[in-house]
Amino acid sequence: MTAQIDHALEEIRRFRPSPEFAAQAVADESLYRRAAEDRLGFWAEQARELIQWETPFTEVLDWTNPPFARWFGDGRLNVAANCLDRHVDAGYGDRVAIHWEGEPGDSRSLTYAQLTDEVKRAANVLAGLGIAQGDRVAIYLPMIPEAVVAMLAVARLGAIHSVVFGGFSADSLASRIDDAEAKLVITADGGYRKGKVFPLKPVVDDALDRATGGSVQNVLVVQRGGNEVGWTEGRDQWWHDTVATASAEHTAEAFDAENPLFILYTSGTTGKPKGILHTSGGYLTQAAFTHKNVFDLHPETDVYWCTADVGWITGHSYVVYGPLANGATQVLYEGTPDSPHPGRWWEIVEKYRVSILYTAPTAIRSFMKLGRQIPHEFNLRSLRVLGSVGEPINPEAWIWYRHVIGGGSIPVVDTWWQTETGAIMISALPGVTDLKPGSAQVPVPGISVDILDDDGKPVGGEDGGLLVITEPWPSMLRGIWGDPERFRETYWEKFGDKYFAGDGARRDEDGDIWLLGRVDDVMNVSGHRLSTAEIESSLVAHPWTAEAAVVGAADETTGQAVVAFVILKASQADRVTDVAEASEELRRHVATQIGAIARPRQVFIVNELPKTRSGKIMRRLLRDLAEGRQVGDTTTLADTSVMTAITEQVR
Ligand code: ATP
Ligand code: MG
After folding, report:
1. Ligand 1: residue whose CA is nearest its atom 26
2. CB 503 within 8 A of CB 465
3. Which of the listed residues 391, 442, 532 should we mutate to test ligand 1's pocket, taking the one with most ligand atoms within 8 A of CB?
4. Is residue 288 within 8 Å of residue 50, measured between CB atoms?
5. What pairing do the DSSP bridges indicate for beta strands 479-480 and 236-238?
6. pLDDT of residue 3
7. What's the distance, Cα to Cα, between the start and end of the chain in Å?
8. Helices (H) and strands (E) in the chain — how many of each?
9. Cα(411)–Cα(621) distance, integer angstroms
């Protein structure tokens, strides 16, 4: 088998930064020059400029024991103090850190001074419960300010948080608690979602019955949903009884740069989630650097909003650590995009005059499905930078995002990275890079990537291959919790000292990088290796289509055949009456746009696609369906009933 992936879809649109934007941009070409001339020197400068060190480091990178890297190894810092106290000390205590919007419409704004106080109180409570450096704390909370407070309080003590997405089941929570041997769980009674309260504390109780490790000594409960909860005396404590009355005096102690900061499990798109370990100094440096430069952050004037849940890596790096290290003002929203009405997000943008918005292609495509009239009811003119993360963004979705949400002229950055990379790795820099819809474009300054074939040789021309990161980077994962062997095997075995990301990619003639989808999802049709991302983008470019997922299914004549699952736009769903004809039209469309080889054998029109809880398409389940197999493990699926519905539509 060859790793080469044929590339077929042409995208020729280009957008140059406007001179006005470029003139005020935070980033400039000199970052690339400096990083190219002295990569480690560049990162050392960023670490000194963006982070406050209690003990300055003298050593930048120790890579003598690959794949275990040490960055800024002899430096010491407190991560939470970097996100809080230092801004207050510098005179920015009155700046709003968080504009929080609850789903039912309640709201709260916290300044840096208030957030710092809250974290100090919480740190005192945690210390009182015996939490100290190195202890693990599981956090299972809705998107409320206490989620941020809890993470920072744990970090302040040098302990390790493991945030578990509030939508996960008791089983998933139990296995994560056991894996990390958490001593404390921080949760809420419940949170709001789609107009209803969903229970959290009862799930924790259930999880603790299932957990076999018996590591948990206490449960700290925030009151949010007002739902009834059971209580275990001696173990359970209310946040408002303890944190509110605790002292707001707390001196942050400095810890080693390599002190573990958190464990976070991957989204589980391709299989069983991995407990990814991140540490302090390098992680914070790259999170802050990318947040500042990729989003063109002007902390005095910008209002930033990243829509990711804190249960995902995007919520860690771009809701908590990057923005707060940079002293940004941000919006935090508890609920779903369509509660109580489908314009909720745009109402929030208007209300807080959000200027930087960072979200996922799945959200953008679901807004496309509903139509532009919904965002058009709101004033979105405050927006000046748009970001995307999580999956390849189809060029059509990129254009829609830029035009309908961004008003047609503001930069859109497509950011490629992973839980493992800790921070953005590939992205345009607004004001610097000419933008290309659909391409993640270039490694950020200080990052080195390559595209290799199966034998580890760089692929030539515009051929697709395997994306690797060729040099260690500050926010790289330091391991898989408790499983160094799996760490080596998963990422390092294939290419030795190069990190294997598991994604396919190609470079175009300008050297810009295009993500082609997961390597495991690449299809082999009559000896041609085709990318899921390209065929999906072609389908989404058809005026009828809102979303598409493509898989390769075993085929007697071609080895594999392309099978597509398509969701139509709401405005088209009524017009398309003949499903067979619509499928035929979409098959023809792909053949014309890409070539006969990519023509899907079947196009199924469906109402939903199987997605993980972070919104990514789970193609392996569709492959099971397309090959007539029993559908595999659905435990990381957001809605397990979706596969049953799709199966019925397809049969
Ligand atoms: P698991 O590793 O458990 O299967 P996951 O890979 O979905 O889960 P994450 O770390 O949340 O978990 O996602 C990282 C992956 O998301 C990347 O490897 C890539 O496939 C995809 N991705 C993220 N951003 C982009 C992007 N801008 N363009 C293309 N793909 C992206
Ligand atoms: Mg992954």
Report:
1. 416
2. no
3. 391
4. yes
5. unpaired
6. 59
7. 33
8. 23, 30
9. 35
Report CA 517 to chain centroid distance, whole Å.
16
Alpha helices in 6-59 (DSSP H): 19-24, 30-37, 39-50
**What is the reported pLDDT for 1?**
37
Q: Please give the angle made by the CA atoms of 420, 425 and 426, to the nearest 5 degrees.
A: 135
What is the percentage of the chain residues whose pLDDT exceeds 70?
Answer: 99
Quote the CA–CA distance of 391 and 411 in Å, as a whole number: 18
Which ligand 1 atom is nearest residue 270's CA?
4
Residue 517 is which amino acid? G
Residue 2 has pLDDT above 70, yes or no: no
Give residue 421 CA to ligand 1 midpoint distance, Å: 10
Q: Is the pTM of this model over 0.95?
A: yes
Return d(Cα 614, Cα 617) in angstroms, integer.
9
Beta bridge partners of 468: 450, 500
Distance of alpha carbon 279 from alpha carbon 477, whole angstroms = 8
Helix (H) or strand (E) holding 181: none
Question: Best substitution site from 263, 265, 269, 413 to test ligand 1's pocket, by max atoms within 8 Å of Cβ?
Answer: 269
Which residues form ligand 1's pocket by a CB distance below 6 Å?
266-271, 273, 313, 389-392, 414-416, 418-419, 440, 501-503, 515, 518, 614, 616
The atom of ligand 1 lying closest to the CA of 272 is 3
Atom of ligand 1 nearest to the CA of 313: 11
Write the ipTM: 0.99
Q: Is 419 annotated as a binding residue?
A: yes
> Rounded to an integer, what distance in angstroms lies between the CA atom of residue 389 and that of residue 411?
14
Q: Specify the length of the chain in residues.
A: 651
State the chain's mean pLDDT as an integer: 95
Q: How many Å apart are CA 334 and CA 129, to the nearest integer?
A: 28
Nearest protein Cα to ligand 1, atom 30: 391
